[in-house]
Amino acid sequence: MAIKVDIVTPEKMLYSGEVEMITLPGTNGQMGILRGHAPLLSTLDIGEIVLHKREGNDYLAVSGGVVEVRPDKVTILADVAEAGEEIDEERARIALERAQRILAENPPPHQVPEIMASLRRSTLRLKVARRHAGRRASSGLNYESGQQQ
Asked: What are the CA-CA distances from residue 79 to residues 3, 44, 67, 83, 104 (Å)?
């Protein structure tokens, strides 16, 4: 049985629909939510949201926020979130390389947590973009036109 999911960022409604299951990066660990889950309120970490659907999974990158779980609905208020098709893989790769380079230069200790967060976000964005590209290639669906190839 499906559960309703809404994912909202300060800029837009990123997703609204039903899924079989949703996997989230809680600050205390990974969470899997099915319909009928006990009510829950949690903060989100940098990580991957997986929308498990009958026709395949959708992947989103999230960087913080909160999630409210009710037995029939999951509401995510994300600080920053991007769907795989929105991520510019080249830009994410450049950001990852920049963070790695800065970290290798022995930055002042007070800058390390921010650099590590940037490294995690860039790695996550690349992972989600590549998962999306892999799903698109394996499904034979051209997301730009919505047509079968």
From this structure: 22, 9, 11, 14, 28
The CA dihedral of 33, 13, 44, 36, to the nearest 10 degrees, is -20
Give residue limits of the domains in the chain: 3-83, 85-143
Between 147 and 64, name the one with better pLDDT: 64
Pair 85, 71: CB distance under 8 Å: no
pTM of the predicted protein model: 0.78
- DSSP H helical segments within 1-149, as ranges? 89-104, 112-139
12 secondary structure, DSSP code: -
- Quickly name the fold that domain 3-83 has: ATP Synthase; domain 1 (2.60.15)
